[in-house]
Amino acid sequence: MKNLSGRAAFITGGASGIGLGIARTFLRAGIRVVVADVSREHLDDAATQLATEAGEYLLLPLDVTDRAAFARAADAAEDRFGRIHLLCNNAGIGSGPSMLTATYEDWDRMIGINLMGVVNGIVTFLPRILGHGEGGYIVNTSSMAGILPMPEPGGIYTTTKFAIRGMTESLRIALAPKGVGAAVLCPGLTKTRILDRAREAKRQGKAATLSAGFVEAQLNAMDPLLVGQAVLEGIERNDAYILPHGEFIDEVHAMHAEIESAFRTDLPCHPERAAFEKVRREMCDTARAQARGL
User: Fold this and answer.
1) What is the DSSP string of 167-235?
2) What are the distances in angstroms from CA 49 to CA 20, 21, 53, 94, 203?
């Protein structure tokens, strides 16, 4: 999507970390920004940081699990800026309890925020974006954990992030005929509010072996502004994937090689089944080509 200056963006989880990095990058590109976040403390801090940026922005409290509140926030965004063209579903929570001991409540909380929060954003804003007919772009924040599964206790988190990745790929090809793009953002370690807790854990010597490594890595994580710039460039290039953390490329290649090696090519495939799959693939290839051409 080109010519982004003057457009308006709505960013969930926008008051800290990656969300704030996206907001600041967008403002510098002339994009008007709505920063929505559940934390009043984070919104207050974002107000201080954004005061140094040129451009127009609006700060809104929003719990992404509250669908009625999402609709009200969308109305407020349109009242302020008119048509919204860019939606960044970025809000989410990390880690969580082990899959081996998790309760229904643990699963519901992670899925409700990380996955259904994205769904709520799409259901709220997509009809509005399609309605104005001026094109648009949706960026859904997954994670490298949406491509490479995390060790325990990150299994529930991984579940939600894999789901966001698949949903976004399907959304991209569904939206192509409508002139709207979609991308999945899969970042690795990025400096966020987790950094504050990491520093405290290191100071107190409370980190376990794996956690200690995470603490040290978090202290040297990527600047959110670099992730924000990658998001902006990904939208401008109409990328399907936004992958700012190059350190994962060899691991992803190995995982794909493992998947490919697991395919059985010695078992029979009925000609009618093969014909059906050929038609399905042609349909998907056509849709992907259309999406790339936006």
Assistant:
1) HHHHHHHHHGGGTEEEEEE---SB-STHHHHHHHHHHHT---HHHHHHHHHHHTPBPHHHHHHHHHHHH
2) 9, 11, 8, 24, 27
Of the candidates 57, 104, 137, 157, the residue annotated as catalytic is 157
Say what percent of the chain tops pLDDT 90. Answer: 85
The pLDDT of residue 207: 47
- Whether residues 271 and 286 fall in one domain: yes
218 exposed, middle or buried (CB, 10 Å; 0-12, 13-18, 19+)? buried
| Single-letter amino acid, residue 221 | A
Domain count within the chain: 2
Closest C-alpha to 72, from 18, 36, 105? 36
241 is a catalytic site residue: no
Its domain, for residue 214, covers 193-221
How does pLDDT run across 4-50, given as a tens digit for each residue?
999 999 999 999 999 999 999 999 999 999 999 999 999 999 999 99
Q: Is residue 3 part of a domain?
A: no
Q: What is the dihedral of CA 185, 190, 191, 192, to 10 degrees?
A: 50
Ranges of the chain whose pLDDT falls below 50: 207-209
Cβ-proximal residues to 124 (8 Å cutoff; 6+ apart), any chain: 67, 70, 71, 74
| Residue 168 resides in a domain | yes
Q: What is the DSSP string of 10-76?
A: EEETTTSHHHHHHHHHHHHTT-EEEEEES-HHHHHHHHHHHTTS-S-EEEEE--TT-HHHHHHHHHH
**Rounded-to-integer distance, Cα 191 and Cα 39, Å:** 18
pLDDT at 193: 67
pTM, full prediction: 0.92
